[in-house]
Amino acid sequence: MQFPRGLLIDLTPLKASPAFARMWIGSTLAGVGSQLTVVTVMLHVYTLTASSLAVSMIAVAGLVPMVLAGLYGGMLADAFDRRRVALIAATVTFLATLLLATLTWLGVETIWWLYGLSMIIAAAGSVGMATRTAIVPRLIDRDLLAAASALNGVAFGVTVMVGPAVAGLLVAFTGYGWTYTIDVVLTLALFLGLWTLPALHPEGATVRPGLASLVDGWHFLKRAGNIRMQYLLDVIAMTFGQPLALFPAIGTVLLGGGAITTGILTAAVAVGTFCSSLFSGRVVHYRWHGRGIARAVQVYGAAIAVFGVVLLIATLWPSDETGAPAVPLIIAACIALAASGAADNVSAIYRNTMMQAAVPDAMRGRLQGVFIIVVAGGPRIGALYAGGLATLTALWFPPLLGGLVIIGLVAVLVRAHPRFRAYDATNPEP
Hints:
The protein is mainly alpha-helical. It has one domain: Up-down Bundle (Growth Hormone, Chain: A). Helices cover 79% and strands 0% of the residues. It has helices spanning 12-16, 18-49, 52-61, 63-77, 82-106, 111-139, 145-173, 176-195, 211-223, 225-240, 247-254, 258-278, 289-316, 327-358, 361-392, 397-415, 418-421. Helix 5 runs antiparallel to helix 6 and helix 5 runs antiparallel to helix 8. It is a multi-pass membrane protein.
């Protein structure tokens, strides 16, 4: 098989499938709004509590509903019209965000409302993401899946780059209500992308949602060693290398700049994601996806460790009585976070492609549900790790220790699984 060797991103999936292009555009616009709310809720909780642990508990609170919704949503996607399932999930997300904005404008929001609505949004997002991802292989050819994953990396980069930065500015200059309201408007774009899709029923034998469907998916996963291994590596990376919950405290008490610095740090991750996708022409044609995942995760761990070193230096940095931001350290932190975003995106390109190419269509929804639980659940466990350990030690300690742990664990696990190292994209095997 001959692959093109261009350096820039391959746009062929957008040209080859108008349906994929519409869904991609709608998901991107809605994703910007979603990131506005993610960062704004973090800042909102920190304002109410002044506690990094309370901020981290936002993510933890959404973990159980997200796990249950991801599993059940995957079963729904393998039994019913995936377009309809995705539309229902989008509707729940829209209504929950609308309620969040309404409560804020009325001035009656509490930390418990923020937690509760975040849980609902996380659960609905888990169902929607699993279903939309399962839809993609039905819209484009298999040899374009890696390129489609890179395009999704661009979308993610744009959403996380624009959303948090704008959220920080809006919170600083206008307050919380406008930010939530903008998300309500942007969520409507998601309906446009999904509404124009055709009906997409699963191919092959289907199993109605329930215990039998869950057991069927579990039996498949037990046989799918490569899929299990990529799950494990991602959980390790996100558990020990996810410092997002620390950003409000870092911006307020360590680097200076408050909400604006919080938004900049979050956006820096997305800058790396965006750039690595923009120049993914050769990345998407590397066929040894198991090796690619392992190397990318280790680079991610190294970048997070460097971020911890920057924070350690910040504790020794001469204090400014005016409280001005420590600009050199903010720049250094952003470079490390951008590198982590680039590495994570390369890993995601290979993980997504492996999931979509190696898993049968009739099983894809359930496996995507588990995959989303891993992708979204790992950071929530990581938020608890970072917030809890930082409360007991210092802000710099969790990322420095976690980055080193990631590098070591990945080296040991990949060495013990030669089949994963030998995974070949031209002959995908789960």
